[in-house]
Amino acid sequence: MEINSFKDLFLAELQELLSVEIQLADALLRLAGAATHPSLKRELIDHRAQTETEALRIMTILKKHNADEPRISTRRCRP
Q1: Which of 15, 31, 50, 73 is deepest in the core (most CB within 10 A)?
Q2: Are 19 and 70 contacting, i.e. CB atoms less than 8 angstroms apart?
């Protein structure tokens, strides 16, 4: 996306934020699957639900501005 205005910048930042929220939700799901302590597992699942809600809110804003959702890379960072 080419940035030519403050609106373009705003939408680009929202797209980046959406990408981060989606990646975080994926990571939280994997962490919850690996967690052995019940309360930790529950908190990770709860945090994932909150993260998904935030992602939906960002998607709604992007749609209101007729902006594309970001393409999410399936590449993973190396530990």
Answers
A1: 15
A2: yes
pLDDT at 25: 97
What is the C-alpha separation between 36 and 54, in angstroms, rounded? 27
- Ordered DSSP codes for the chain: ----SHHHHHHHHHHHHHHHHHHHHHHHHHHHHH--SHHHHHHHHHHHHHHHHHHHHHHHHHHHTTPPPPPPP------
Higher pLDDT, 32 or 68: 32
Give phi and psi for 72, each to the nearest 5.
-90, 125
Q: What's the pTM value of the predicted model, to 2 decimals? A: 0.80
Instruction: Provide the residue type at 28 as one letter.
Output: L
Mean pLDDT of 24-30: 97
